[in-house]
# Entry
Amino acid sequence: MSQTMTHGRNQTMTIARHRLPRSAGTARARADGAGRAWTGLADALWAEWTKLRTEPGTAWILAAICVLTVAVGAATAAATRCSGGTGCAIDPTKVSLTGIEAGQAVVAVLAVLVISGEYSTGMIAVTFTAMPRRAAVLAAKAATLTGLVLAAAVVAVAGSLAAGRLILAGNGITAAHGFAVVSLAHGSTVRAAAGSVLYLALVGLLSLGIATIVRDSAAATGAVLGMLYVPPVIALFLGSEPAWQRWVERYTPTNAGLAILNTTGLRDLVISPWAGLGVLAAWAAAALLAAGVLLHLRDA
Amino acid sequence: MTATITPYRPPQQDGRDGFAQLLHAEWTKFRTLRGWVIAIVVAAAAIAVVGVLLPHSSQSHCGSRSGAACLALVATGPGGEAVNDSYYLAAQPLAVDGSITVRLTSLTGLVTPDPNLPTTGPQDTMRPGLVPWAKAGIIITASTRPGAAYVAMMVTGSHGVRLQYDYTSDIAGLPGSVSAASPRWLRLARSGDVVTGYDSADGRGWTEVGVAHLAGLTGTVRAGMFATSPLVFFPNFPTYAEPGGSLSASLATGAFDDVHLSGGAPGGRWAGQNVGTIGANYDGPRIGLRQAGGKFTVTGSGDIGPVVAAGTNSIFITGTLADHLFGVFIGLLIMIVIAAMFITVEYRRGLIAATLAASPRRGRLLAAKAVVIGMATFALGSAAAAVAVIVGTRIAHNSGIYVLGSGWPIEVRVILGTGAMLAVASVLALSIAAMLRRSVAAVAAVVVVIVLPYIIGVTGILPATASEWILRVTPAAGFAVEQSVPQYQQVVGHYGPPDYYPLAPWSGFAVLCLYAAVALGLAAWLLRRRDA
# Structure
C-alpha cells in the first residue's frame, strides 16, 4: 500500500500503514519450522563470513599462516643434514612439515580474534540481539573459521612439501642414500599432508572454543598458546615418571596431533597417526561443547 | 569604587609530581586489578609446585641399599665435587721426593659397538677400538681411596698427552697418538706436595707440561702406572638434541717399558689393584697387570674425572639445580602475558588518555611501569625459585639423588638469577606490548619472541646445532642462569638443556638484558613520537 500525504488545511491526510507482505515469510514459518532454523543458520553464516572478509587483518593473518609454515619448514629442512651420508633417522616428510608447529600459533591467533574481537568492542551484544540462537552463532563462526583455515592450510602444506623436497635433496637426503622421498605418490605422504591440513583446522576449532570460554582477548591468547606449546615441554621434563610422561605424550592436543606427521618409524610412536588426530579432534569437540554451554548459560 | 578582589587560593598545597608519585600510581593500577595479582601469584605457585613435585620421585637403589644411604657411595674430590675414580693401578709406595718415568709404546682398547646401528655379529662382543678419552699413563696419588688427590700424566685415545690432576684440571701436552713408531715418554717429578709433569717424544728432550700443587699429597704416596677407559654414551637420536641414550663399557690397555722409579724402596715390586667402585664399567678377566721382563701391560676400565649431569656415571642418580626449575617457563608464560596486558589494557579502555594527561613525561611513565612489573615478578619469582630449589634439593637428598652443583653460593646465584631473568623478560614483554598496543598481537608477539625459542631449543625439534644457535641468540638465552654446573672438556657427556646451556650464566642473562634495553628504548621513543 502506498502512502499518500497531502498538505493543506482543507485536505485530509491519510497515512497508510506500511505492512510487510504477509505471504512469503509466514508461510515459510508456519509450514516448515525447520526451514526457519536453516534460514537462521544460513543468515548466521553469511553474517560471520561478512565479518571475517571485511576485517582488514584477516587476509594478512591467512598469508602469515602460509608464509610462516613454509619458512619454518624450509629452515628446518636446510638445517637437516646427515653427517655420515646414510644411517640417520630422518623422516623427510616430517621435516618438511615441521612448519605447522609455528603456523598453528597464527591459526590460534585468528581464532581468538574471531570471537574475542566481538567481546572487546562490545559487538557481542549486537550479534546476540540479531541472532538469539547462540549455538548457531558459534557454529557459524566455527564453520567460516574452518573454511578459511583449510584454504590457507592447503596452500601452506603444499608449499612446505615442495620446499622441503627441493632443499632436502640439496642436502643429500635422497633416495640414493636410503631415505624416503617426499612425493605425493606415496600413501604415507598423502596421509601426512592431509592430516596436517586437518590438524591446523582442528587447532583453530580448539582455540575458538577456549577463546569463547575465556573471552578476554589477551588472556585467551595466552591460554591458547599455552595449551598448544606447554605440554610438549612438560612431557620432556617428566623423564623420571614414565607413566605420566606417556599419558602426556598420548593425550595432550599438540603431542597427539603431531603424530600425523610421521611417515617412518611408525612402530616406535607413542600413538598412531590417526588416533593422535582423533585425540585432538576430541579436545576441540570438548572445547566447543563447553563454549556452547557457557554461551547459553552466561549473559554474553 | 571597586574593591580589590583577591583571587581564591585553595588552602591545599600543590601536589608533588615526582617519579615516586608515578610509581605509586602504577603500583595502584597493578595491585587493584585482582585478576592480575592472582595470575602473578599463580605463576609463582606454578614454579614452586612444579619444582618440588615433578622431578625425582624415584629413589636411588644401589645394591642392597636405597635412598639417602646411596649417597655414601659418592666419592668427592679435594674440591668437594662428585667424582668418578676408578682405574687399574700398578704402583709402589713413594715416601720421599722422587720421580717416575716410563715409555709408552701403544694404547689399545676394546669398545662396545653402538646399539643404535645395525650390527652383524653377536650383540655383546666388544670390538677393538679406542674411545676418545681412554687413558693410560703414570699417576701419583695420595691413596687408593676414591676421591683422593692425584696427579697423572697420560696418553689418551684422541687427545694426545694430557696432564690431569685433582679431577677438574686438564692441561694438554704433545699431540698425536702413540704407537711403536712414535712412542711417548712421560715423567712425574714429586718434591713435597708439588708435582711437575714432563713429556718427550724421543726420551732425551723433555718439555714441562704443567705443575700441580696438591695439599693432600704429603707423606707416603703411591706412584705407578695406570689404565682406564670411560663409559661410552650412545645417544638415541644423534642428529637431534634428545637426551636419551645408553651407556656401554670400554677398556684401555697401555704397553709400558723403560720404567724407572727414583725414590722408591729398593727391590720394590709393582703391585696391581683395581681402584674404585665399578658400576657399569667392565669387570672381567681382561683387567689387570701383565709383566714380562721389563715390559708391563696394564688394562683398566672406568674414569678419573668429575661427574657431569647426564654423563657417564652409573653408580648413583645425579641431578642438578636446574631439575627443580622446570616450572619456570610456565611462570614466565603467565608473567609475560600479564606484563603485556599491563599496558595494552590502557589502550583498550581509553585510559591511556588520562594516564598521559596526568604524566606528560612519557619516558618516565614507561620506566615506572617497567619498575612496577619488574619488581613484582622479581620478588615473586625469586621466592618461588627459592622454595623450588631448597625444598626440592632436600627431597632429592632424601631419595638418594646426588644434586650436582649444590652449595649456598651457587644456589643463591641460581635463585636470584631466575628472579632477575623473569623480571627482565617481563620488562621486555611490556616494551613489545607498548610498541604494538593491540592486546592479541602483543601477547602473541611476546610468546613467540620469548617462550617459543626456549621450547624449540629444549625439546629438540630442530637439529642440535640449530637448537644451540637459538639458545645463544634469542631472548631464551636468559635461561642460562639456571645452569649450576660447569662443563668439562675432559669428560664426554650430553651437554645440553635443561642442565647445560651454550652460554655461561651471566652471558646469557646479558643477552636477555640487551634485548630488553633495546626494546624499552624503542618503546619509549615510539611512545613519545605517537599521539598515544
In short: The longest helix of chain B spans residues 362-398.
